Amino acid sequence: MQRFLAGSALLQNEPLVEEILNTVVKAVPIPVTLKTRLGWNDEHKNISTIAKIAEQAGIAALAIHGRTRTQMYNGEAQYDLIAEIKQSVNLPIWANGDITSPQKAVQVLQQTGADGIMIGRGAQGQPWLFADIQYFLQHHELPEKMRFQAACDVILAHLAAMHDFYGDVGGVRIARKHIGWYLARVPHSADFRKQFNQIDNPNAQLDKLSAFLQTYSSEYEFWWRDY
């Protein structure tokens, strides 16, 4: 992406960002949203300029990840800059970065004043995080943990859906990282995760994973979580 000046590399070329946004907004009849980072690096945090370009182009909402491109996912998201952008433009702002729990979601909303949040990596291995956040916002307390069998049902359904959507070859490969994320919180699962990554048949993946999960069913009532 960087070689072709695409993705976050575009942050180095503000005129091209403006041209692309104007062209896309004018070309389609639906709202156009934009997700970006704070800038290319610490010396070039140009999110303020990018946000104003987006506003003038008619972007419907702006999602901001609280790091620069060169930071990748190192360090901590800088929510103070997202808060500054929220005050400087008349756009719905979605805060993104390091939101891994309902408590953190509330903290980020309060700290940034954002209109919403966007979650990516935080939901890996725990897609029920979204429902937990909604519950926490409404009731000001954490919901009950995901019940073990309910979590197993979600995981196995997700695995089958990946096979259906991506096909036998692609689905098997893509499933490996997702199952790894699910099982990262499961005690003593490292050896099975290595074995699972060697399986090259979709039915075998389903059978082996189902059998592995059932070895925990009599011992645990709830799925594991970090919050």
UniProtKB/TrEMBL annotation:
Domain DUS-like FMN-binding: 2-214
InterPro entries: Aldolase_TIM (IPR013785), DUS-like_FMN-bd (IPR035587), tRNA-dHydroUridine_Synthase_C (IPR024036)
GO molecular function annotations of the record: RNA binding; tRNA dihydrouridine synthase activity
Top-level taxon of the source organism: Bacteria
Gene3D superfamilies reported for this sequence: Aldolase class I, Putative flavin oxidoreducatase, domain 2
Protein name: NifR3 family putative TIM-barrel protein
Lineage, uppermost ranks: Bacteria, Pseudomonadati, Pseudomonadota, Betaproteobacteria, Neisseriales
